[in-house]
């Protein structure tokens, strides 16, 4: 019985170490672009990433390139631009 418990404990510790190692090698949020979110005139939500402005919503699309050029499902799987729009609109003082 004691041998079985030791085996299970070692297996659990091994799984824990493997999980930590995988996260250290490929932390899912390490390569996310960071930028400055703002609201321009008329509710245009814009994000500045690496010194360049990108349109987050339709109101900003006539003045800036779309954020999807750099931040999309291919480059960042699980992308949710809607949350940026909502957060950006809270910055508008209407």
Relative helix content: 25-40%
Radius of gyration: 21 Å
**Number of β-strand runs:** 3
Coarse shape? elongated
Strand content: 15-25%
Instruction: Give the biggest beta sheet.
Output: 3 strands, antiparallel
Q: Secondary-structure element order, as H and E?
A: HEEEH
The rounded distance between the terminal residues' Cα atoms is 69 Å
Sequence stretches where pLDDT stays below 50 over 5 or more residues: none
Quick check: average pLDDT? 81
Counted by DSSP, the helix tally is 2
Helix and strand content put the structural class at alpha+beta
What is the topology, as strand order, of the major beta sheet?
A: 1-2-3
Q: How does this model look, in words?
A:
It contains two helices and three strands, in the order αβββα. It is of the alpha+beta class and 94 residues long. Strands 1-2-3 form a three-stranded antiparallel β-sheet.
Name a few traits of the molecule.
94 residues; alpha+beta; 3-stranded antiparallel β-sheet
Provide a compact summary of the structure.
36% of the residues lie in helices and 16% in strands.
